[in-house]
Specification:
The complex is a heterodimer of chains A (80) and B (442). Chain A is mainly alpha-helical. Chain A has helices spanning 3-17, 38-52, 63-66, 69-79. Classes of the chains: A mainly alpha (80), B alpha+beta (442).
Chain lengths: 80, 442
């Protein structure tokens, strides 16, 4: 799966979590500015594990890899 | 399917969690003098106009007869909130307290503590408002019955009140507030499977004794007491950065939780409480609607349950890891949603019976303490009736047992920790220790 495809799926998920339209989710905005809190972020990590078989919760979450939808999509894509 | 929509008029069918709130209400009325209530407090920079506030509030509340409702039973035994068909404004308490010259924040807190410990009058009163005027410190507080609102619903209701005021008292702000709820008498297989999951989790939690403090049931005291630890924006920003550094990006809740464990462990150890593991429930919002007005009234909350061994508390890095693992596992297994689904099975049981059953699985020791973190305030404005809001915090009456807990909320970038305890559960020096340590280790 490409980084763009992952990004698109993450945007759909974040729109659901934050009760917004997907078009309102800017992929380069930090998650905390999108209204994602601890619980929302864990939901994203669970989604990645369920759908992409990649467990990230135990990893040391490096902010630069996880801060935006785009960076997270790129990071996940590089690990697949 | 048809049954779901029968007799919806003037009825809001309660979900399982609403029923749990009712059980806790009975337990608390019998043990602490007042019910399962909480209070949201808006600290203001200037005194609000009493006359304008009271008259506008009365007109606003009249838009919501649901506030004057009471619990009743459908012939299927499903409990519902009976909404009065007509009549005047709902019965809502209102107090105005003018403190003498020189009265400061501590005096205002004393008044607020008295307000939250005052029981509602009769079956139909579920809300009370309080205006407190001190010297240079003033506030508006809303005490709410937890059967009517959860914390986010209460904040949103006050937000709606502010919208009503800003709109020049347009009744249209109440449009879209949903006051009907289906019977939910289907999908039984899902409910029983969810019940099975919850049951297994509860049995697993009860395998080890729950580390708890002895519950004070001194009939002479019985009220709740509070200490609010507020952090300014700069301090709150530093806490967030520390949380990101130590627990990971966005992991504020696990970070705060780990620090609370650390502080409470100090109190438990200081009392010489030994053996068992800490079991702590943490509430979580399970709303699904995009518009809060569709889920404004009643409860749309569920719970996570965390179990932490005392030796894990002593290793800060391990503690954060354990909390994150348990949070992840429960999100993955959808435990809060399953608890919500399963709880609808208990709605047929009478409250008095539930009161007795509630104590069975864990021998009356339901938790070590309570924890809550509301990450974002649902009150969107920075003003209330022309006064600027300097802070918003909550004063919950914690479920008994355990009768002690810490509730975090954030308003305008400011973090607050409300320490709530049943009078006599902590000594003054223990509360000083908790507040001081929270301030120093967060």
């Amino acid at each position: 799966m490409t980084a763009e495809e992952i990004e698109s799926r993450l945007i759909q998920l974040i729109a659901t979590i934050t009760n917004r339209q997907p078009s309102e989710i800017a992929p380069d905005k930090p998650f905390h500015e999108l209204g994602i809190d601890s619980l929302g972020f864990v939901e994203i990590l669970v989604f990645i594990e369920k759908n992409l078989k990649l467990q990230l919760i135990a990893s040391q979450l490096d902010r630069k890899d996880f801060e935006t939808v785009s960076s997270l999509a790129r990071f996940v894509s590089s690990k697949l | 399917m048809i049954l779901d929509y029968l007799s919806l008029k003037n009825k809001y069918y309660l979900n399982g969690f609403d029923w749990v709130m009712g059980v806790i209400d009975i337990i608390m009325r019998r043990t602490t003098g007042a019910g399962n209530a909480s209070q949201v407090v808006f600290m203001l920079d200037t005194p609000p106009d009493e006359e304008r506030f009271t008259s506008s509030l009365k007109r606003f509340l009249a838009l919501f007869p649901v506030i004057g409702g009471s619990v009743s039973r459908h012939y299927t035994l499903t409990p519902f909130w009976k909404i009065p068909k007509n009549g005047g404004p709902p019965p809502v308490g209102l107090t105005v307290t003018r403190l003498p010259e020189g009265a400061g924040e501590a005096d205002v807190m004393d008044v607020l503590t008295r307000c939250i410990n005052t029981p509602f009058k009769g079956r139909h009163e579920h809300l009370a408002f309080h205006l407190v005027y001190g010297s240079g410190v003033q506030c508006v507080a809303m005490t709410f019955d937890h059967r009517l609102f959860d914390a986010r619903g209460a904040e949103s209701f006050m937000n709606l009140f502010q919208e009503y005021l800003s709109s020049g008292e347009q009744a249209g702000v109440a449009d879209g507030v949903r006051l009907t709820q289906k019977l939910d008498l289907r999908d039984w297989r899902d409910k029983f499977l969810a019940g099975q999951t919850v049951n297994r989790r509860m049995i697993a939690l009860s395998r080890e004794a729950i580390r708890s403090l002895p519950l004070q049931m001194d009939m002479a005291r019985q009220g709740f007491r509070y200490r609010i630890v507020s952090f300014d924006r700069e301090e709150s920003g530093r806490i967030v950065e520390r949380a990101y550094g130590e627990a990971g990006y966005l992991m504020i809740m696990p970070y705060l939780f780990s620090r609370v464990f650390n502080v409470m462990h100090g109190v438990f150890s200081g009392r010489g409480v030994q053996g068992g593991a800490y079991v702590v429930p943490a509430s979580t919002d399970v709303r699904q609607a995009k518009d809060i007005r569709l889920e404004l009234f009643f409860n749309h909350n569920s719970m996570f349950f965390f179990q932490i061994r005392p030796e894990e508390v002593e290793d800060p890095a391990l503690l954060v890891t354990r909390i994150k693992e348990q949070l992840y596992d429960q999100v993955q297994s959808r435990f809060p949603q399953k608890l919500m689904t399963a709880s609808s099975l208990i709605r047929v049981a009478p409250l008095w019976l539930m009161h007795k059953l509630f104590h069975l699985p864990l021998q009356g020791k339901i938790a070590s303490f309570c924890f809550s973190h509301v990450s974002k305030c649902s009150y969107n404005s920075h003003d209330l009736m022309g006064s600027r809001i300097t802070n918003v915090f909550h004063m919950p009456r914690m479920p008994v047992p355990p009768g002690i807990g810490i509730f975090f909320n954030t308003f305008d970038g400011r973090l607050n920790a409300s320490i709530s305890w049943l009078d006599g559960s902590f000594t003054t020096s223990e509360v000083d220790e908790i507040a001081g340590r929270l301030r120093s280790i967060l």
